Amino acid sequence: MPPLSAYRLLRTISLPALLAVGILHAAAQASPTVPTSPQPDCNGIRDLAFVAHMDDDLLFMNPDIDEAIQAGGCVRTVYLTASERNEGADYMRNRESAVRAAYAFMAGLPDDWIADTVQVGAYRLAGFTLRANPRIQLWHMRLTDPWLGKGWGSLTPLSRAESIPGHTVETLEEQPQSYTRASLIDTLASIIRDYDPTTVRRMDDTIAIAYTELCWRCPGHDHPDHIASARLTREAMMIAPGVYDGIGYVAYPTQEYASNLSQAQITRKTEVFRRYAWVDYRYCRGPENCHQPVGPSESWVRSTYQLPRNDQNIAARQ
């Protein structure tokens, strides 16, 4: 594998931190045509990220995705869940608008997107391509994702499908689609093969705590959707090997760690997240009187922790 470019510079987790965690908005315009494959001029960067929720990428993977965009790379982010928190399709669409606003800001371009339905095997995904820069694409699987409250309490639909044989998860659509664990992995693997990435980003699949024992803000704990999405992505990487760099990211536990970004990176990451928060009405209703990020999100924008790199590239070595 060629040497990593500067934008992929690893920020590794300190040994004490590893031990502490057990290793560790505009509406889219519809168009009948959309470039759903990577554009040929990607400047050597074909960045593919899989996350559970709208905002996971902004809080836990940035500044890496932002830096790939700044370098003129092709970037596709795939959101597995609808992230609707019991508020239905309206809130799902609100959050989708919010991430589009954030990505348009990262690209320094108008928040103007081409919408289309993307076919991946037997499944339909919602796809959005930034009109002024078709290298940037956001895809949504829209798996139902009811909010579980302050304590997780039970399995999410995604983590249930990931962990319990025979269980399925449906999409939040007028004509719902149903995924099994195997079809989830196959769909993610098909996306990887089609995109021919140089980097595949995922969340942290190494949390060993059982889903039903996870809790909000407990040290070393994470969201079950984060873990399930990462486990599924990891398995998809195993059956879709290639010459790409696989990178996993610590999520909620980073609030327990020291800041490891420069002040310039923190300021930029904060401004990107604020563009999201201005649209997501559970955070803010526009920039006026919006104090985000606060609380845990303030901690999350100050750090980005990758899993140890020697645990990343198994798929690339097959």
Blueprint of the fold:
Blueprint: H1 15-20, E1 29-30, E2 46-51, H2 56-61, H3 64-70, E3 74-81, H4 88-107, E4 113-120, E5 123-130, E6 136-143, H5 157-163, E7 169-170, E8 178-179, H6 181-195, E9 199-203, H7 224-239, E10 245-249, H8 263-277, H9 296-300, H10 314-317
Parallel strand pairs: 1-4, 2-3, 2-9, 3-6, 9-10
Antiparallel strand pairs: 4-5, 5-6, 7-8
Q: How does this structure look, described?
A:
The protein is of the alpha/beta class. The protein has one domain: Rossmann fold (3-Layer(aba) Sandwich). It is 32% helix and 17% strand. The chain is built from 10 helices and 10 strands. Helix 4 runs antiparallel to helix 8 (263-277), helix 5 (157-163) packs across helix 7 and helix 6 crosses helix 7. The radius of gyration is 18 Å and the shape is globular.
CATH topology: Rossmann fold
Low-confidence stretches are 1-38, 311-318
Q: CATH superfamily, called what?
A: LmbE-like
Radius of gyration: 18 Å
Whole-number total of structural domains: 1
H/E element order: HEEHHEHEEEHEEHEHEHHH
Largest sheet: 8 strands, mixed
Query: What's the total count of β strands?
Result: 10
Based on the model shown, name its key terms:
disordered C terminus, 10 helices, two-stranded antiparallel sheet, disordered N terminus, alpha/beta, eight-stranded mixed β-sheet, 318 residues, globular, Rossmann fold
